[in-house]
Amino acid sequence: MEYVESKFNFERGIQHKTASEIQSTIIAGKKFDHFKGLSMVLLGAVLWGVSGTAAQVLFQRDGFDPGWLVSTRMSASGLLLLLAVAIRSGCKPVFSVWGNTKDSLRLILFGILGLLGVQYSYFASIQYGNAATATLLQYLGPVFITVYLAFRRRSMPNRWESIAVVLALIGTFFLVTNGKWQGLSVSTPAVVWGLISALTLSFYTLYPKGLLQSYGSATTLGWAMVIGGLVMAFKNPPWHFVGYSSFGAWWLVGFVVLFGTLIPFYLYISSLNYISASEASLLACGEPLSAAIVAMAFLHVNMGAFAVFGGLCILATVVILARKSSA
Hints:
The protein is built from 14 helices and no strands. It is mainly α and 327 residues long.
């Protein structure tokens, strides 16, 4: 009897241990997936930031036109993204959006005002200024979203939203003036295009929600890139460029297309399978930080103490708004 009881207790202990091990394995797997998601979005943000600096080199050293780079970047990345969807899921999901007239028109609008708008204005701001300032100005987008949503619901922003807006205004002032009341520390076109980039970023964020839910992120972004690239190609066709052609210049173009567009978009989209949108928004702050660090280290972009303070204020608004959305 004692033998049977001890054997039963021994087997029960094994079962409990096995269940505990299984639970530990599940928890470890979730932690790994969470870490993987964080790593993916952070790497994508860094690649975006570095690609902005690469674009600055192409514009200011090699004389490339922003419109040409946008049309080439969007067309190539969009086609590669759609090809990846077709290989993975077949051709039917790729072309399904064109069977709905309303969604087709929305996709065209998103491609032109959303993706084309945000990318061209961002590159134009880099051309007239620098990658660090252009990227930080673009990150005013969440503030415009906050103001728009408050206007739409016909209510004043709450306390944290108000703090974020005030910080954004203070940050923008110090970023573009470096604390000098006499004038701007960067050119006026750089500031104007940077603010347009923030506005189009807010449109790009809010508008395609229905399309993303119906057709998936990869298909929607792929077609939007192709549409934006084709529209830009009427003015700046990929086969006609102005600038200094060299191996180094074309290597940078390839970097912007692959590592500055296709790969970071894929990483960012895929990361949302493992982490929340608010976490992704927080880690996306790595983009302006990486752009600023690379620009100052390799291009000798001089950002004064007040401009750095302004950039930190803008990043603080993103952190506040992202944390508020996750609360």
